[in-house]
Input
Amino acid sequence: MTRSLWDVLGAIADRRGRKGRQFPLQAVLAIAIAAMLAGANDLRAIFRWGRRLKPEALALFGIERAPCHATYHYVFRSLDGDALARALGSFACGRDAPGHIAIDGKTLRGSRRLDAKALHVVSAFATQLSAVVGDLAVAPDENEITAALALLKELPLEGAIVTGDAIFCQREICQTITDGQGDYVFVVKDNQPALKADIAESFGDLSPLTDRRRVQRSAA
Output
């Protein structure tokens, strides 16, 4: 039986203290998602959207009154973002094969705080589903390659085709994909000089890496 989004949110661990659980985590997350789908793009907008809900609408979320602004702030500070991403990614995939998965790393705009670095995230986007099926924050002492490797190990790769920039053209990443019964297409650039040279040699004049001007001069 396919789980609903409500069921998925209910399975996420609540890391708040006992005193901070006036509202169920499931309800707060569901209201936040609904508010963002309606155009809310920050905590204040989410709070205002929830405050306008009528009693019968609040009852659908299992609560009698709307959470205050501080509740949303506390919930998202304590929330395990990676666990939420895994839960939503699993819900997006459902029982369908993900098809084409594009992985990419991006720095989140507006995420820089004081002396801390901006948050950098590696995401996996399933084009067939038009949904992000997984993302993982890059730790300060790691890079996109390490994060991508950890992310791919959590995704259903059977029958999938994974694409990405040249930075992801790494033996461990490719092996993880094939071990998961998937395929990959990665760009090869100067960060893999030996592989680039082997490709140019194998495909000869048909390779896009071949120097066309040199070939033309040799033919003349």
User: Anything to note?
Assistant: The CA atoms of residues 212 and 218 lie 10 Å apart.
